[in-house]
Amino acid sequence: MNSTGIKSAYDAIIIGAGVIGSAIGFELTKKGWKTLNIDRNPTSGYGSTAASCAIVRVHYSTFDGCALAYEGYHYWKRWGEYLEFPDEKGLAKFIECGCMVYQTKTNQYLKKVISRAEELNIPFERWNPAQIKSRLPIVDTRQYGPVKLPNNKDFGRASNNDLRGSIFFPTAGYVNDPQLSAHNLQRATEAKNGTFLFNSSVTEILVRKSRAFGVKLSDGREIHAPVVINVAGPHSMKINQLAGVEEKMNIKTKALKVEVSHVKPPYGFDYEKQAFIVSDSDIGCYSRPETGNHILIGSEDPECDERIFVDPDDWDENFTDQWNTQLYRQAQRYPDLPLSSNIKGVVSLYDVSDDWIPIYDKSDLPGFYMAIGSSGNQYKNAPLAGVMMAKLVEKCEDGINHDRDPLSLHLKYINREINIGFYSRNRKINPESSLSVLG
Ligand SMILES: Cc1cc2nc3c(=O)[nH]c(=O)nc-3n(C[C@H](O)[C@H](O)[C@H](O)COP(=O)(O)OP(=O)(O)OC[C@H]3O[C@@H](n4cnc5c(N)ncnc54)[C@H](O)[C@@H]3O)c2cc1C
Fold this sequence. Notes:
Blueprint: E1 12-15, H1 19-30, E2 35-38, H2 48-51, E3 55-56, H3 63-77, H4 79-83, E4 94-95, E5 99-102, H5 111-119, E6 125-127, H6 129-135, E7 166-169, E8 173-175, H7 178-190, E9 195-197, E10 202-208, E11 211-217, E12 222-224, E13 227-230, H8 236-243, E14 253-263, H9 271-274, E15 277-280, E16 285-290, E17 294-299, E18 309-310, H10 321-333, E19 345-353, E20 359-362, E21 368-372, H11 382-397, E22 408-411, E23 416-419
Parallel strand pairs: 1-2, 1-13, 2-9, 5-15, 13-21
Antiparallel strand pairs: 3-8, 4-8, 5-7, 6-7, 10-11, 11-12, 14-17, 14-18, 14-19, 15-16, 16-17, 20-21, 22-23
Helix pairs in contact: 1-7, 1-11
Residues 15-21, 38-41, 46-49, 51-55, 201-202, 231-235, 258, 260, 346, 348-350, 374, 376-380 line the site of flavin-adenine dinucleotide.
């Protein structure tokens, strides 16, 4: 029995065992909580985490976004040390290849990003078009924007001008196996007596005396705990609806269909070893090297593209024209990119919030919390989402009123404080947000 009077084998139930759900389990067990992660999949990290490009970059549209991401980078750099426990499957690897962002009109030539990087002491280099070409000889640095659909008559027509240049952030990279990273967190949590329950679907949030007191599963079983945390990824809105908390939130979430194209680089260029992450708002694509000398190409959600919001339990998982659109757009920048018709890559869902910034918060139902709205950009922050949510849950259960007096979080590696209230469910839409995957 705990202070809420709820008799239970667990202190907290976490719905979801993706990279963020598992990180929250880990951080709560470190505080001595008895946790249970429940997932409908057969193991950890099989949801949107498995589809993730797992890019760890340090530039965001907001100050808090940059600070959290730079702190997060330090966790990935010390992944084994952070976990405190080995995994029999091995550890996911952080490949620190760096990230180059083109300076375009769309991103205001990175004026704000540069000043935030200076403020946070994030290292960066300025590259002009000649320097970009010396690092990436396959590149055409001419300006193609604004981004268009391939059926636009001006698609593929470059201006006579080169792009202004780019900013290169060396403290960036990607994790080679995002599903494994969630499994690493699962094993680390289990080593601290956390429990995972798979192949089990939550169908009801139990409420007693006006507070959450557990969940009901599709097989009819009830599991009780005084704290329930929604970390259900693209299903987050459904879980909030089950808890009856969605209506009262100012910022809501929904599932967006996304595609990542997976192709060979221009012949003779070792993209895996020589390239890096690229954010290119002039063509509306981001990309990164992939094992086996491939390029992963994702969309930066330009305005001309349709956004396909879906029911996460009933959607078409096939590729659409988006796959080709991304390939053709990338071929503007890499003219020798082989235009394959062999469609490979990933079709998945983002859990998008109204302003593409996550919600790490309590709810209006005591005992019910959420780490949702990851908007295609929170893989990198998973360990910190764990740290932040563990603090939030602990303090709120101790009686702190986080809505009235928002908690802050000390970022130990970069020695900064951030206001957890920034991620409130009741914030106004953040006007600084890119309203895209860039956050
Ligand atoms: C294509 C793609 C590319 C991305 N690229 C990047 C990137 O480069 N960098 C970056 O930082 N971020 C990226 N992201 C975002 C990042 O991957 C996600 O933010 C992160 O993986 C979310 O983790 P999660 O644990 O919240 O959710 P998930 O991994 O989706 O886990 C949620 C879990 O909840 C379970 N669940 C749902 N409903 C129920 C229920 N009723 N009962 C039981 N279990 C339930 C699901 O089975 C699932 O396993 C990308 C995402 C996608 C889709």
